Amino acid sequence: MATTHPTTTDLRHDVVEQLAELLERDYRADLGELAQRYPGDQQHLTIDWSDLYRYSPAIADDYLQQPELMDAHLQAAIPEIDLPFGVALDDVEIRMVGLGDAECYQPLDALREAPDGYLGITGELSKVSTPTRLLEYGVFECLRCGVTTGKEQHVGGREPPAECQGCDRSGPFELLDKHENTVFEHYCKVRIETPPDETGDLQQEYMDGFVRGDLVWAGHDEYGLVARSGEAVTAYGTLEYRARGTKGEESRQYDPYLDLQAIEFSGDQQEVDIEAYRDEFEALATREDAVDVFAESIAPELYATPEWDAALELLVAYLFGAPRIDIQDGPTYRGDIHALIVSDYGMGKSMVNSAVALFSPKCIKESVTGMSSDVALLAAAVEDDFGGGGWTLEPGILVRANGGHVILDEIDKTDVNLERMNNALEGEQVVDINKAGQSATYKSRVGLLATGNPQDSRFNRHEPISEQLDIDQSLLSRFDGIVTMADEPDTEQDAKVAETQGESYIEAFEYQFGDREELDTLERTVDVDVGRNWVACARQECHPIPQLEQVHRIRDWYSEEVRQLNEQFSSGEAADMPAPASARVVPATIRFAVAFARVHLRDEVADADVERAMQLSKTLVGQNFDGEQFVPQESRRSPQTQQERAEALQSVLVEADDALTVEELAEETGIDEGKVEHRIEEWSRKGEVYEPQVGGGYRWS
Ligand SMILES: [Zn+2]
Q1: Where exactly does CATH 3.40.50.300 map onto the chain?
Q2: Cα–ligand 1 centroid distance for 35 (angstroms)
Q3: What spacing in Å lies between the alpha carbon of 162 and ligand 1's midpoint?
Q4: According to the model, what pLDDT value does residue 386 have?
Q5: What are the pLDDT digits (tens) for 419-430?
Q6: Which residue among 1, 141, 321, 439 has the highest number of C-beta atoms inside a 10 angstrom radius?
Q7: Max Cα separation, the chain?
């Protein structure tokens, strides 16, 4: 029997067949999704190298040695998969991620070891240049004879053809940039840096890289990579070397740079897959106590004091939110819910923040400590020091999280002027930036959860809470709910808190190291994945409409019950309040009601949702968690000194949405009408306040 040696073609065929088998087994669903989105919304397939390795270590190794060839094989294997949509996936970009530790390098190690083949560079994505278009293939016209000649472009300057196809002379040529065969690709430069706290500032350790095509838009739907600067990444690709120096000068110094093929963000959460969890969350949503079980599932290791009870319910509303209403040329209503939690140390804020982030389909959670200005929150124009002298606009946290949630920790520990966030959080909810000749308007439609400590780190029980929140009044008024927690000794409650903490610890310990197989105290009725997809589904699909009678119910409740809290508070008959009840309670309560209806995946707001929302609002306004009354010495009197009166009046005027009359101002501040009038007259002369043309009253100018 004659033996035949396999030819190169056979071998190639063999590899493509194996890769097709792997794709069929592990990537059918991904390819199905790609087929639906191809080519307009998505042109790439992300493959995890560990899947390749599990299928065949030899193939995985081949990939590292010859990534371009193996990409071509993978591209050839994709059309072999039979997909229901009949789309020809003939030019899919392959993004290989998930390399092992042995193939991932810090920038300095990559420079030192100069590894060949496909590898990962880990670090912080410290810079991203503004995307531009890069010439990949140029059609050039000969200015002598008019014949066109095509030329592939490479790294470096633009290269015309060596000689003309028509007259064999060397030009001069002109690039036909509109010619159908001239190809431009999106392009940007990136820098991957070892964070300074790891290098000890001894030397700068970074690797520059370039990104082409669709990959420029990876990581963020609207803004791509530029929206993710500052985040921890692993960038994959191959190392190339480029001569240092200015154009036209040959240098013997060569710098490595990474030709990026794929990028992974360490902070990315698991993706949302609503259908995979629909049965589970739909069953939970029909439960009457759906809001309670969701709230209890956020942080089961926490003993829910009355304060935490209210806070967790507020956080359920925060997660689900209400739809935004934006009628062209008409009014806009914010749907996002903003929450503030201010507590003494060690009461569980960090734990809850981390847990809430897990339940959000799209969330950025950061500590404000260390932020030196508001640009990290809003947007920054930064000088692009790749050498081009250009500027890059970097969208900040509130912009990058557009459509989702932002959690800001330790808001009291910063010099950042947080009121700069006011416009990003209310009304149009946009960030305008105009710096260094660059301007842009970004949407910042996010729900904000801010947490921090009181002014002197601990609440002082002898002072009113409102005076211990070191937050500007105008920002404070953006929050739909504020929860304050003072850590005061309470024998019975302290015992319960300690018991829950201890039990949780033992349970977690047994689960990890012992033979415990089921969780008890730590068991979540709403699992994180189920909860996140529940939230995602409700936010996408549910727009529950409140009924007019319900709004009337809220109106009566506000005027008869809530508004009275101000009176009771100032006369010392009610518990302490973090901020006075103003008309803002009404839209906040409507938002809560809609959010609770969303928890139940309802089309209409039910009366039960409204009752729950009013209950929550009143609890938050009054902060009457334990039924005890607290009478601070200072706050029960109206402003006494001239200075105090001026401050009180100014803050009410600045915060008000509408013009206020002297009588209204007097009522709001508890200051005598005559004194209000006197002060207003003085301000009018100085132009600090003005009277609008219609309606009467005064506004701060
Ligand atoms: Zn010619």
Answers
A1: 274-622
A2: 44
A3: 11
A4: 67
A5: 888 888 988 898
A6: 321
A7: 116
**Ligand 1 midpoint to CA 633 (Å):** 93
Q: What is the pLDDT of residue 232?
A: 84
CA of 174 relative to ligand 1 center, distance in Å: 11
Ligand 1 midpoint to CA 156 (Å): 25
* C-alpha 140 – ligand 1 centre gap (Å): 10
The reply to whether CATH 3.30.1440.10 applies to domain 113-265 is no
249 CA → ligand 1 middle, Å: 29
pTM above 0.70, yes or no: no
Q: Where are the beta strands (DSSP E) in 81-182?
A: 93-97, 104-105, 119-128, 132-142, 148-152, 173-175
Instruction: Indicate the DSSP class of residue 364.
Output: E
Query: Which whole-number Å values give the CA distances from 181 to 137, 158, 331, in the listed order?
Result: 8, 16, 48
CATH topology of domain 8-98: mini-chromosome maintenance (MCM) complex, chain A, domain 1 (3.30.1640)
CA atoms of 534 and 530, how far apart (whole Å): 6
SS3 641: coil
Q: For residues 200 and 170, is the Cβ–Cβ distance under 8 A?
A: no
Does residue 122 contact residue 102 with C-beta atoms inside 8 Å? no
Query: Which residues are paired to 152 by β-bridges?
Result: 137
Other residues' Cβ atoms within 10 Å of the Cβ of residue 118: 23
Q: What is the pLDDT of residues 610-657, one digit of tens each?
A: 999 999 998 888 774 543 433 333 333 456 677 778 888 888 888 887
CATH code 3.30.1640.10 region(s) in the chain: 8-98
Span from the CA of 165 to the centroid of ligand 1 (angstroms) = 6
For ligand 1, the distance from its centroid to the CA atom of residue 150, given in whole angstroms, is 13
Distance 183 CA to ligand 1 centre (A): 22
CA of 158 to the centre of ligand 1 (A): 19
**CA separation for the pair 300, 277 (Å, rounded):** 21
Lowest-confidence range among 58-62, 290-294, 570-574? 570-574
Q: How far is the CA of 149 from the centre of ligand 1 (A)?
A: 9
Give 421-470 pLDDT, tens digit per residue.
888 898 889 888 877 677 778 889 999 999 998 887 788 777 777 778 77
Question: What single-letter amino acid sits at 213?
Answer: G
Distance 168 CA to ligand 1 centre (A): 6
Class of the CATH domain delimited by 642-700: mainly alpha
Residue 665 has pLDDT above 70, yes or no: yes
CA distance 683 to 679: 6
Q: What is the CA radius of gyration of the chain?
A: 31
φ, ψ for residue 390 (rounded to 5)? Answer: -90, 175
* Residue pair 336/478 in contact by the 8 Å Cβ criterion: no
Ligand 1 center–CA 119 separation, angstroms: 44
Cα–Cα nearest to 105, from 191, 189, 190, 194:
194
Q: Which amino acid is at 217?
A: W
**Ligand 1 centroid vs 141 CA: distance in angstroms?**
8
pLDDT of residue 627: 39
Question: What's the CATH superfamily of 274-622?
Answer: P-loop containing nucleotide triphosphate hydrolases (3.40.50.300)
Percent of the chain whose pLDDT exceeds 90: 37
Instruction: Return the bridge partners of 175, or none.
Output: 140
Q: How far apart, in whole angstroms, are the C-alpha atoms of residue 543 and residue 55?
A: 45
Q: What is the pLDDT of residues 345-359, one digit of tens each?
A: 888 888 899 999 999
Separation in Å, CA 469 to CA 406, 455, 475, 689: 20, 6, 11, 27
Compute, in angstroms, the gap from residue 137 CA to the centroid of ligand 1: 19
Give residue 164 CA to ligand 1 midpoint distance, Å. 5
Least confident of 102-116, 478-492, 566-580, 648-662: 566-580
